[in-house]
């Protein structure tokens, strides 16, 4: 059973269209809560998301963040009324507006803790882009995914042309972006878009169990590993080794390293403190 954050957290309030829960130690569950629009990214939800991510970035107790959708959908993308709401606006004004939207939602990339997209249903357009911005993606069996921008008469946005090729490769990215077609969970798994597919009735529990396992790892090591893997990892072997030769000694100097060695010797689960 998930436990909500204290009422003092503004984004735990129901009118924010974003629920924030802590189902286990170190794990935060963010639920997009606009089911009437299949969890479309409304202005209210976007503001709540940006505030919440900023709060989580400053919270030392957070070790893993899971994102999912309320009801039968993960996220249907940007609110069409907002996207097409200013047909007479000049291009420079639309550009400024879209950059603000992108940066608000892609702020999840700034978190130094592992993030998981729990794709419980359709993830469409910017909704799929949000999932792509997370470190890991898991899908329920009934989930479907698409980036149908060209079918709507628009160019892809929210880092679709950056994240999609990096995750599924150029061939699959070209297919998905140029056709705008929908893929099911099994096809998404085959192309590497998601890491696993789980029956709907077991899905969220399975993802939260994985998140709890991540939360139980050493926080300093986990954060540094995530930083190392940003944007597809290091550009070359030399820069990789230079980073690792610094980051690994940082972890060797932690109390958690000593705890991990003791726990391995004593054949028990380690209890990491993040120091």
TrEMBL record:
It holds the Pfam family ECH_1. It is an enzyme of class 4 (lyase). One of its GO terms (molecular function) is enoyl-CoA hydratase activity. It comes from the Bacteria. Residues 1-23 are annotated as: Disordered. CDD domains: crotonase-like. PROSITE patterns: ENOYL_COA_HYDRATASE. Keywords: Lyase. It catalyses: a 4-saturated-(3S)-3-hydroxyacyl-CoA = a (3E)-enoyl-CoA + H2O; a (3S)-3-hydroxyacyl-CoA = a (2E)-enoyl-CoA + H2O. Residues 1-17 have a biased composition (Low complexity). Its EC number is 4.2.1.17. Belongs to the enoyl-CoA hydratase/isomerase family. This is Enoyl-CoA hydratase.
């Amino acid at each position: 059973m998930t436990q909500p954050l204290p009422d003092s957290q503004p984004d735990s309030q129901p009118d924010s269209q974003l629920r924030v829960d802590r189902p286990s130690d170190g794990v935060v569950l963010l639920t997009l809560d606009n089911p009437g629009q299949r969890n479309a990214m409304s202005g209210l939800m976007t503001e709540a998301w940006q505030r919440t991510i900023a709060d989580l970035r400053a919270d030392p107790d957070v070790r893993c963040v899971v994102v999912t959708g309320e009801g039968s959908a993960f996220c249907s993308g940007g609110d069409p009324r907002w996207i097409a709401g200013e047909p007479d606006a000049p291009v420079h004004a639309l550009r400024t507006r879209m950059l603000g939207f992108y940066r608000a939602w892609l702020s999840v990339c700034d978190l130094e803790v592992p993030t998981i997209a729990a794709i419980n249903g359709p993830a469409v357009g910017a909704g799929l882009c949000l999932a792509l911005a997370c470190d890991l993606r898991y899908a329920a069996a009934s989930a479907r995914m698409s980036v149908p921008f060209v079918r709507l008469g628009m160019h892809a946005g929210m880092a679709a042309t950056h994240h999609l090729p990096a995750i599924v490769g150029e061939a699959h990215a070209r297919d998905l972006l140029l056709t705008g077609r929908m893929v099911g969970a099994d096809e998404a798994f085959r192309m590497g878009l998601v890491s696993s597919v789980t029956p709907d009735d077991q899905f969220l529990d399975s993802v939260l169990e994985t998140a709890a396992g991540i939360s139980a790892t050493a926080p300093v090591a986990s954060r540094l590993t995530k930083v190392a893997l940003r944007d597809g990892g290091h550009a070359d072997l030399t820069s990789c080794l230079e980073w690792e030769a610094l980051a690994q000694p940082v972890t060797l100097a932690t109390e958690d390293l000593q705890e991990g060695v003791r726990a391995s010797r004593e054949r028990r689960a380690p209890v990491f403190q993040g120091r």
